[in-house]
Amino acid sequence: MSPKPHILVIEDEAPQREVLVYNLESQGFRVSEAATGDEGLLLLSEDKPDVLVLDWMLPNVSGIEICRQIKTKPETRDLPVIMLSARSEEVDRVRGLETGADDYVVKPYSVSELMARVKTQLRRARPTLAGQVLAFEDIELDAETHRVTRGGEQLKLGPTEFRLLSTLIEKPGRVWSRDQLLDRVWGRDIYVDTRTVDVHVGRLRKALTQFGGEDPVRTVRGAGYSLG
Predict the structure, then answer these.
(1) Within 13 A of 4's CA, how many CA atoms are on the CB side?
(2) Which residue has the higher pLDDT, 6 or 191?
(3) C-alpha span between 46 and 115 (Å, rounded)
(4) Of 181, 182, 188, the residue nearest 225 (C-alpha)
(5) What DSSP string describes 105-119?
(6) pLDDT tens by residue, 3-15
(7) What pLDDT is recorded for position 65?
(8) Which is the most buried residue in 47, 176, 194, 202, by most CB within 10 A?
């Protein structure tokens, strides 16, 4: 199974935060929550989420400032941010989006609409978690049925090799370090030696070439692995 998509909620109003967390968890997401911007930034640095739901009006550091910080750092620039705000004026919406927010939702909002918007951002950021079929050259991965084919032939992959391929195929050409692959495939809470990554990459290569074809997994010396 793929790891659950991780959503971080930064919202200072406890009742609203509780409703959000409850609904996100009932949709099958793993949720972290923070009541202040500083607490949220700390959580984000420790465990980067797949989507951030961020309130504009926060004590001390505003949501706008947090969004600005996130979008200027290379390691978090691609994190989808959904801004929540009671400000419904067009000028405020434009300001929020210009700061880098990927979506802007005006309070009071419909919870079901917000859930749909979270899923939309997740599809853009991590397509395999949204159950799409991803392809690279003649390799196809169906996240929902856990089927992988190459050139029309169904491949036999173990669960770890499937998660590895899921990560690599999301962004072909991107180089993933062993530590990044450990976080994505095994999870942060599990201690696994980085050499274990090499072993499973070897198994993935074997599975991908079981019916012939070139090995699509590239080793980048001193950096990690990429697909293509």
Answers:
(1) 12
(2) 6
(3) 24
(4) 181
(5) EESS--HHHHHHHHH
(6) 678 999 999 999 9
(7) 92
(8) 176
Superfamily for 6-125? Response regulator (3.40.50.2300)
pTM more than 0.70: no
Long-range CB contacts (within 8 A, 24+) of 41-48: 41/66, 41/69, 43/8, 44/8, 44/70, 44/76, 44/79, 47/6, 47/188, 48/6, 48/75, 48/76, 48/79
Phi, psi for residue 204 in degrees, rounded to 5: -65, -45
CB 63 within 8 A of CB 57: yes
What is the domain partition of the chain in residue ranges? 6-125, 130-227
CA 12, 15, 18, 24 dihedral sign is negative
Q: Which residues, in sequence order, are CB contacts of 145 under 8 Å at separation 6+?
A: none
How far, in Å, CA of 48 to CA of 71, rounded? 13
Domain 130-227 CATH assignment equals 1.50.10.10: no
Q: Quote the DSSP letter at residue 24.
A: H
pLDDT-wise least confident of 13-17, 96-100, 220-224: 96-100
Tell me the sheet residues that pair with 80: none
DSSP state of 47: S
